[in-house]
Amino acid sequence: MNVWLLLICMGLVTYAIRLSMIGLIGRVNLPPIIQWALCLVPPAVLSAIIFPELLMPGGTLDLSFGNHRLLAGALAAAVAWRTKNVLLTIGVGMVALWVLQAVIPH
Amino acid sequence: MPILLGVVPFGMIYGVLAMGAGLTVGAAMAMSSIVFAGSAQFVGVQLIHSGAPGMVIVFTTFIVNLRHILYSASIAPYLARLNPRWKWLLAYLLTDEAYAVTITRYNQESASPVISANRHWYLLGAGLAMWITWQVSTAAGIFLGAQVPSSWSLDFTIALTFIALVVPALRDRTSVAAALSAGIIAVLAFGLPYKLGLIVAAIGGMAIGLWVEARQSLRAHRHERGDSR
After folding, report:
1. Most A CBs within 10 Å: which of B24, B167, B208, as the mutation test of the A interface?
2. Per-residue confidence at A65, pLDDT binned at 50, 70, 90?
């Protein structure tokens, strides 16, 4: 697909979602089960991106101590849990990755 | 508004990653103004880089942005009296951040006796401020992107950003179940063709989360009736 066509389609999909309920006000009410399902979108989508990124950095499953991204990611998750601070989590995770890459060769 | 400053690093990281993924300057800027949704742009750039088909990228964008239906539904009553043109404009500006500050403001207002008739201007202001911040920080990232070597592993910031967003949100059994199962399915489904793994994992995770929720409320219901099963 042409990259410009792709961008326009991505934009249209995003816009349609944002306009959906504003445009339909008074005509449609979301049933509770749909609301519940939508609340689960962020944890499901984000974890589906995070897990392969941490567990299979080279494209195959790697649970060893040589997997820098898994170690740095676990540390970052602990920071996120304790502080709820987004930028601190990213900072600690990146520094941990750089240190591990320098100290433990792959 | 400190929330604007918080967005700057993400715009810059997006710009750097878009350059690393081989997008042209024009396409990288256009994605920020046409799509205007941080997480979807991060994922989109990654998928473009890995050569996923366009249909998969568009459908993944749909899944990643589905949560905006909730924002749209919760803000809709406040905008009900506006003419369609206002609604179309404000819908375009309804990002996570603009929604968060605006709904907080509206909730405070509805507690007070005087409710402003011009409150859609507040969402317009928040949305436009976000829009400008996002475009400028994307441009800064694109400019820097040419100078950042790949040995810095900046792509890891995507995973870290999402960790920072998801971990504090895991407050109940349902969301933990959805997150864990989606993650495990994503690893198992990694080899699926056309990068379909993310979509399968997200839908699977939501289904399992709903199933846990349904079982929990069923049990609570039985408990109420004194049924000892």
Report:
1. B167
2. confident
CB atoms < 10 A from the CB of B111, how many?
7
Q: Which residues of B touch A105 (CB under 8 A)?
A: none
What is the per-residue pLDDT for B101?
87
Q: Residue ranges per domain, chain B?
A: 1-156, 170-223
- Kindly state the percentage of chain B with pLDDT values over 90: 54
Q: Print the SS3 string covering B96-149.
A: HHHHHHHHHHHHHHHHCCCCCCCCHHHHHHHHHHHHHHHHHHHHHHHHHHCCCC
| CA–CA distance, B109 with B96 (Å, rounded to integer) | 20
Chain B neighbours among A 52-91 (CB < 8 Å)? 52-56, 59, 61, 69, 72-73, 76-77, 80-81, 84-87, 89-90
Residue B212 · residue B173 · CB < 8 Å: yes
ipTM for the complex shown: 0.88
Question: Can you give the pTM of this predicted structure?
Answer: 0.85
Mean pLDDT over B58-77 rounds to 91
